[in-house]
Amino acid sequence: SQEGVYGKPAQEDFTADHERWKNIVSKSYLNGMGIDWSYVRNVMDMRAVYGGFAAALKDLKLWVMNVVPVDSADTLPIIYERGLFGIYHDWCESFSTYPRTYDLLHADHLFSPLKKRCSLVSVMAEVDRILRPQGTFIVRDDSETIGEIEKMVKSMKWNMTMTHSKGGEGLLSVQKSWWRPTEVETITSAIA
Fold first, then answer.
1. Of the candidates 109, 128, 123, which has an alpha carbon nearest to the alpha carbon of residue 174?
2. Could you list the residue ranges forming a coiled coil in this record (predicted)?
């Protein structure tokens, strides 16, 4: 039989992924992270693998855009087979969507491999562009990468709702704020 993304036989890999996300969503995301799911309509899984995260949200009134990064295994046909939406994308480039489209962005182990190819600052600028104010950004990655992202979201004045690290793995949940600079410098020569 074929080998799956996580190194197990394909069917076993798929089933394990489905069970993993069902447990994480029911035990952590739905109750333990302070997310008001009644305001969440548009969700993006930035590294969808088999679409397990989206499948775990199936009972909520929302839709999920599943993104398969171009440098990952080609699992988009599996996502389509599950009846889910999906697209290929290179996160070193802009994502083709309107600004502030998504209420929740989810990135599971996206950033640690991505930082070998491009700047995380430019990826975070894209996250800032497509996430609505008051939207939630959930990142699961290695602790070092979580620390880098934490510094960036703090510099953007986003609200940290949860950060946790255990055994080299980290989880970060933040809410994008409405923050704007309080003083605006006006350069009179630019106006004239």
1. 128
2. none
Answer yes or no: is 146 within a domain.
yes
Contact 164, 144 (CB under 8 A): no
Q: pLDDT tens-digit profile of 46-100?
A: 999 999 999 999 999 999 999 999 999 999 999 999 999 999 999 999 999 999 9
Residue 75 belongs to a domain with what CATH number? Answer: 3.40.50.150
Number of domains making up the chain: 1
Asked if residue 16 is part of any domain, the answer here is: no
Count of residues for the chain?
A: 192
Is residue 140 a contact partner of residue 110, using CB atoms and an 8 Å limit? Answer: no
